[in-house]
Design brief:
The structure is a homodimer. Chain A is an alpha/beta fold. Helix content of chain A is about 35%, strand content about 20%. The first copy, chain A, has ten helices and ten strands. In chain A, helix 6 crosses helix 7 and helix 9 runs antiparallel to helix 10.
Amino acid sequence: MTTTPSLIDRPEAMFQLVRARQQRGARVGVIPTMGALHEGHLSLVEASNRACDVTIVTIFVNPAQFGPQEDFQKYPRTLESDLEALAKFKVDAVFTPRNEDMYPPGYSTYVDPPRVAQPWEGEHRPGHFRGVATVVLKLFQLCPADVAFFGAKDYQQTLVVRRMVEDLTVPSRIEIIPTLREADGLAMSSRNRYLTPPQRKQALTLSRSLELAAQMVAGGERASHRILAAMHAEFAAAGITDIDYVAIADPDTLAAIDEIRSPVVALIAARVGETRLIDNRLLTP
Amino acid sequence: MTTTPSLIDRPEAMFQLVRARQQRGARVGVIPTMGALHEGHLSLVEASNRACDVTIVTIFVNPAQFGPQEDFQKYPRTLESDLEALAKFKVDAVFTPRNEDMYPPGYSTYVDPPRVAQPWEGEHRPGHFRGVATVVLKLFQLCPADVAFFGAKDYQQTLVVRRMVEDLTVPSRIEIIPTLREADGLAMSSRNRYLTPPQRKQALTLSRSLELAAQMVAGGERASHRILAAMHAEFAAAGITDIDYVAIADPDTLAAIDEIRSPVVALIAARVGETRLIDNRLLTP
């Protein structure tokens, strides 16, 4: 299919469309995004096309998940090229709610996210997961899809959303799709477009240090502190000094792990220039 | 109809029943309760029977909305007589979820309720509305009814639920049904059964002081402090000293009002013996 998907901005219209399709027996998939779509997002659309009869993409740059010092204002908004990219897939509707409909005057109800939101991103982006949990819950109300697709690049976010949906008994299934990477290993991200060519090279340190960690574990290393030291050395060598965290953690609870006896997740958040990047990788002993 | 309604305790079964009926075009009403049903609850069932094709009653004594010093353990649980009472109406299902399904191990996601939850009950029962908002949101996920019915006796709760549903864009409509009273004026409440006969008499002070307030406003009084003083005098005369609040407030925001220029709500919470009772009344100048 190569038709431009229809745009919906009214919340009620979105809800009615999903309900009408479900009443005719269709299985509905939703991909919540902030736009600035890249191939990672499109792989979520493909996954929905494979698993569902109807695919909805939501595009909403959610102010509630940005801190006051963060890049909400300059976050890329590229609706026209997003729609072009989506036209290559079967997308039944693109939901672009307006800020004033999502957060009307007097708005004051938030989702206090589950415990797994507290470490790592939670410490470095206070309020971020509260904003994420709130907007995702709202989107599940407006677009009560059977399945929702999220990318594994935002590893902690996938845990927060999964646990929130389980705790609040939201009747949508969560599917996590593997991170898509550029040929050289850089995890795809809407924020990559902020990078200058030299920063683009520096940014490879994230995936390279994760690859190093995976090799060390494959080679028998079990002590997290030695792996973390080696990863930090990679960052130092690349001249990246603004590191929020480099961590080896339990893949479910995200508690820091000292000795690797079962699969763990390595998590990184660092700034390359002004651009904050995150990446992660499962390490299996 | 006088058939005993069918009991559902599995969350998925509840969801599937509502969805199946909605897919066949039925309009579904839900009445969330903590059981210990009285005529007030039954008036909500009647309202649902009038407005909807399918009526679901939920019975769940929600631990999350009780404080550590409150009456969660001794709260009346009277399922058998509740089902008998409901058998006189058209009730398609009674949803009695189990604690361990509602709050499984590791449960840690809550709804941080809207601003209107802060004063009055919010100050005297910290965490109460967080528990209410959370369980109501969960019930709306498991039982995505078209309409939900709440009683006006819990006035602040109705505002909290309405605003939460609006903020989180929950696609259920909220209907508020007027408080039902005993012949002598006592607002019906599951907690009235705690009262000894002398306390039952003392408890009339709540509705009597509200009646006094209404008469004063009807008689031209506009100064809240004089009305509140008269109400407090009623409580003193009745020997009720454990008063959480007696308030005259904006009916939407619940901000305290000094001078009555438009409709206000009078709110009371007080303990008669060990039993905490609340009541309210709209006052129209």
